[in-house]
Amino acid sequence: MRGVSRKGIAVPYIIALILGIAVVALLGYWFFVLGGSFSTEASLTECQTKMRTFCLSYSGTGYTPAQTFTDTCGSSGVADTDSPECCSYKTTLLAGYTNWKDACMATIG
What we know:
Elements: H1 7-34, H2 44-59, H3 90-94, H4 100-108
Helix pairs in contact: 2-4
């Protein structure tokens, strides 16, 4: 083994290290970005549940005081239903209604 240089042995380890780092980076990207596990946005089902919960309590008040919609999410004063997490689903949830009473009556029947 006199003719074998120790410098030649380091090259495969360096290549393996670079490939390992690339694999970990790709898995990390997939897990955090594509997986969406750490997103702060709620799902449509969660937002529908929030709206149904709000509508049930709001119907108990006889739909008073009147609640109108606002263009800005989180500013209507309607607790969780109009929360920033559900902002992207607002159009879907409100389905063309102009006030909470009509939307709630359609939601809970």
